[in-house]
Amino acid sequence: MITLKNGTVFIDNEFKKVDVQIEGEKIVSIGENLSGGQEIDCKDKLIAPSFMDSHVHWREPGQEYKETIYTGSRAAAKGGYTTVFLMPNITPKPNTVENMKYIQALLDKDSIIDAYQTGTITFDQSGLGDKLSDMEEIAPYVCGYSDDGHGVYTSSTMYEAMKKAAKLNKPMICHCEDRDLLYGGVMHEGEASKKLGLPGILGITETLEIARNGIIAGETGCHLHVCHTSIKGSVDIVRYFKNQGFHVTCEATPHHLVSIDEDCDPNDANWKMNPPLESREDRDALVQGLIDGTVDCIATDHAPHTLEEKAKGWRKCPFGITGHETAFPLVYTELVKTGKVKLSLILNKMSHDMAKTFGLPTHDIYEGNDANITIIDLNEHYQIDSSTFVSKGQNTPYNGKWVYGKILYTIKRGEIIYGL
User: What is the side-by-side strand order in the sheet with 38-41?
Assistant: First the structure.
């Protein structure tokens, strides 16, 4: 038994001064003056549902030098997460039953949190050609389908894939990018890219493919989930599709919600990510999308790379930043502490609303539910230190940044999987 005492608990969108008692995997009692078992004093601490992340790269199998299931899952736990969706950028590809069984065995062996693998859309995950993965056969093993890192090139291929996904009742989790418009860009096309002398990426690269995919989703009845939405036009289009009654949802990352292209340092390629950081107007539109419900959830797009790879500079290094261990403190510091959004909104977007988006059981705190909980010190003011990351990836542009909100404990179905 574990008793969480004297804390402030996020329950039913309210903050209540109550104790929480856990026995086995379940929350068995919520009330005042509870005692028994291992007692954890949570005075002046927040007790919240553990986080869920719809967009994660753990690199295994295939690129274990960047991250492993072992390190990735423990980094996630340190960040307050107990459920993640894994993108298909691995080798072998999650495109057949044989490969899925192999991948699932690795997850069962080394992950300390619930990790669900996406299957590929196109067989080789390139987004090119018209050969699809074994979508029907792998359906029992996957949480959805994605070619993350690539947009699906032809409309006919996407149409056929979405028809299958709709019949299988699985979401299409789409990296939306029209590759014909990339032109070798490495950051957002705008005044900042001109000032830094770096090739830009047009915003419509993302928006055009969201528009096409949304129309096909409406035609087929498929659930389209748009990955890492980054610009105002994309938010506007997703909002339009929602208003039309299409099953279209989207996510935004902490870095797109708190940073803009003007923050990019030409000498630090850790700022290079895909989609790139956009303009102030785009960032503000994303935040407004959170508030009005257009943006359904916050996802990290945790993308570890080695420091040696990032040291190649803006033009040659891979896109992506690590995100598990910085997500909550970044959005809490930059959005909640500044008064832009309410803490309750952030907690929902990082947990309840992802569950709602994908039809998963929630981590909400109530008697009888599984005990998936994170305990946070909102008052602790500290510097992000990438050298202390559990993740193999130290590629963050936020190293040294002062933030509030430190994860103290993470509990998954009654077991403390992270604790200071």
Answer: 26-31, 19-23, 2-5, 38-41
How many angstroms separate the first and last alpha carbons of the chain? 19
Taking every pair of Cα atoms in the chain, the longest distance, rounded to a whole number of angstroms, is 63
Spatial distance between the Cα atoms of 218 and 222, rounded to a whole number of angstroms: 7
The confidence score (pLDDT) of residue 420 equals 74
**Structure confidence by residue, pLDDT tens digits, 186-220:** 999 999 999 999 999 999 999 999 999 999 999 99
Closest CA to 176 of 247, 257, 249, 80: 249
Beta strands, E only, 12-98? 14-17, 19-23, 26-31, 38-41, 46-49, 51-56, 81-86
Q: What are phi and psi of 70, to 5 degrees?
A: -60, -50
C-alpha–C-alpha distance, residues 365 and 26, integer Å: 10
Please report the domains of the chain, with CATH numbers, ordered by start residue.
51-362 (3.20.20.140)
Instruction: Specify the pairing of strand 46-49 against strand 8-11.
Output: parallel
Determine how many CB atoms are found less than 10 A away from the CB of residue 104: 16
What's the CA gap between 251 and 263, in Å, rounded? 22
Apex 331 CA angle, 326 and 336, nearest 5: 145
* Residue ranges of the chain whose pLDDT lies below 70: none
Tokens found for residue 300: 């990290």
Look at residues 343, 377, 268, 315 and name the one whose alpha carbon lies nearest to residue 47.
377
* 216-264 pLDDT tens trace: 999 999 999 999 999 999 999 999 999 999 999 999 999 999 999 999 9
pLDDT in tens, 351-396: 999 999 999 999 999 999 999 999 999 999 999 999 999 999 999 9
Instruction: Provide the pLDDT for residue 296.
Output: 98
Residues with active-site annotation:
301
Burial grade of 251 (CB within 10 A; 0-12, 13-18, 19 or more): buried
Q: In this structure, what token pair is assigned to residue 393? A: 């990836």
d(CA 75, CA 65): 15
The answer to whether the CB of 343 falls within 8 A of the CB of 336 is yes
Phi and psi at 5, nearest 5°, equal -110, 145
